[in-house]
């Protein structure tokens, strides 16, 4: 108790006169909301012993000491005696009129009370969250807390500031405690539970991929807020009508108002917040109860924990002409025997124990084209990985892929990447020149003159219209490309088959350059 008194003594230095704080307690503002409204920092938030009744007793004692009337607890002249009593603190089942129980750590989960008292225990609250993390089998080395609150809390806070402005505007302390200096409900909640949650989880909080999200909602209060905003919208429409000298609303206009109200009810939180921000003080006071009423039930809390996507990147080589880059299914029938996406992604997902994955590559090749050389850069994006893979785990993924019996795909330079993820992809895109080898058949045997003509061509400009074979899924465009060089490799025993080695600008359609695609690529190879 002595420690609590010391914390309150330090906290009181940042608070206005005791009669102001007692007044806020009387209208239903919880201690933590009072602290944050006046920019209090420190241990006050994470001390469960500071309840409304404890804070009231401390302040009344402090006020009485200042007035020199400890024994009979008289109130100094000019101050209104606070109607808030300890009995109300213990028996009144209402929750904070601003945060709706969020900072009192009193909430509902699955329509059941998470806490058994109005002032929830920090340790009990964080123990429940830690249990969820462990139950979902997350392996973590840190965490960060995300908080989502309903817009009605923002409206409630403004209503309390309007109440104080009306009552204490002439007092010197009010001019120094402007709303911009306050601490948000979200930050105050983090200050309240952070240390305790660190102790339960055995790791430190900070900027981390693993997130614990606390999502608060309050259906009844949100409906009342939307109703108030709808009334404000109606008043604006009525004022506009008066300017147009309309004495009454006809049926069609009433229908429009009804549709507008329904539209407001479906507005997103961001739109509601912008609407509140745009309201002038006098309009706000006309449509909202000031001070706001206490809530008879707390917010509903939905707790989720997840890890932000992790990326495993490298380069892949494809050796089979029956393997597509991504999973290719037409009319429920698989095209090819497998895909690079499935071979690499499924192995990464298994080790990371994630929910799902996405495969990204720097460009693509046709199913019947092999990917050789240094390989094509790729990324596997694993969502909500329950295990953060180590370097050894990543090597195990590579070994499993490379040692597969079918030898369809091989990966190299596999590693866990963070902000380098998309840089790796850009490396592939920056490789402006690509080398290919194509097996070509001609209707006549090539002469020495043909060979010399082909090998002497350098930086040949060509124009390619979208190939017929991909026209159903690509825009009909003309693309200018460059063939940097070509060489012919003869095949022993054949005068009409040969290997064409060529270096081209990235994105060139090689097959179409060879056969011309019915004139859609010109000039063509021969």
Automatic annotation (TrEMBL):
| PANTHER family linked to this entry | TRNA PSEUDOURIDINE SYNTHASE PUS10
Which key words tag this protein in UniProt? Isomerase, tRNA processing
GO BP terms: tRNA pseudouridine synthesis
Every copy of the Pus10-like C-terminal domain together lies at 311-525
Pfam families from the xrefs?
Answer: Pus10_C, Pus10_N_euk
Which EC number(s) does UniProt give?
A: 5.4.99.25
**Family of the protein in this entry:** Belongs to the pseudouridine synthase Pus10 family.
Q: What is this protein called?
A: tRNA pseudouridine(55) synthase
Report residue spans for region: Disordered.
Answer: 232-255
Broadest EC class assigned to this enzyme: isomerase
| Positions with biased composition (Basic and acidic residues) | 241-255
Has keyword tRNA-binding?
Answer: no
Asked whether the keyword tRNA processing is assigned, the reply is yes
* Residue span, Pus10 N-terminal eukaryotes domain: 96-301
- Molecular function GO labels: RNA binding; tRNA pseudouridine(55) synthase activity
Which InterPro entries does the UniProt record give? PsdUridine_synth_cat_dom_sf, Pus10-like, Pus10-like_C, Pus10_N_euk
Which gene name does the record give?
A: LOC103708698
